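Long-time lurker. I teach an intro course on protein structure, and each term I like to show students one example going from raw sequence to a predicted 3D structure in token notation. This year I'd like something fresh instead of my usual example. Would anyone be willing to generate the tokens for the chain below so I can use it in lecture? Attribution to the forum is fine with me.
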Amino acid sequence: MKIVIPGGRGFLGGTLARAFLRDGHEVVVLSRNPRADGPGRAVDWDAASPGAWQAELEGADVVINLAGRSVNCRLTAANRRAIMDSRVDSTRAVGRAIAQAARPPRVWLQASTATIYAHRYDAPNEEVTGILGGAETDAPDTWRFSIDVATAWERAATEIALPRTRQVLMRISIVMSPARGSAFDIMLGLVRHGLGGRFGNGRQYISWIHETDFVRAVYQLIQRGTLSGPVNLAAPDPRPNAEFMRLLRQAWGVRFGLPATEAMLEVGAFFLRTETELILKSRRVVPGRLLQDGFAFQFPSWPEAAADLCRQWRAARAGHPITAPPAGNL
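-- Reply from a regular --
Happy to contribute to a lecture. Here you go:
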């Protein structure tokens, strides 16, 4: 297959590109910085305007749009504009290019986020019955910006009719990987330094997906051709933060982790130039449509996923990285 990945120089794009290349597929990455190191053949684009990059979509099998400025920052007015515009403008550019193609891709996988769902503790959110966020009475007003971004992102993807291209909105949860700088690497760093206790009251759910299952799920969305519209990419085992961190400590082999109050987290977020929403919002998301489509998770529960990730983390730091098998052989 020829797979085009706008915004493919980030963590998720690199994860997918390496898997596709390992399986023998052609990968083209659309990037603002095509000279940057990374897997796949890079092509320049500005993530907003028509250009020579559109030729890469002609005859391609798949386009996976991951473009968008990181949300791991302080939500200043300038950063809010950049976050919103980078997602909406790039998505519209991809949609217009597909609509104008003589031989458009047969499937467009569009990144979205599990943060689109409401902050809640009472029940899990799946695609059909899940509650979208924005109207919660117990969530800070600042959290509504993430909902506004997610809904605008999805709306931009669906505003152009594309009768020859199947479209999937991937509502992605936290992808757990042993890679340096990943969410798992940061969480494990806290555990390793004795700081891996609960965050805040510890009741907020963490929705996650193992890196291996993320790649496998993307393959299934491409190959089976049965799903379109919103699809949650999350393991079926979201856990409250306190339990999630306890199981991570257990997997690493330590018994104690110092908890962090909300006030401590606010101070830490200020100095790290980020927001506490990333760790305090309850994201209780489950993969209803993936499971109905027959997807079998290799890591369906957090204890086994945490054990595998810790094993891979240790092996990689010891100079013995674990090579994953081809993900396309489902």
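Some talking points for your students: The mean pLDDT is 92. The first helix runs from residue 11 to 22.
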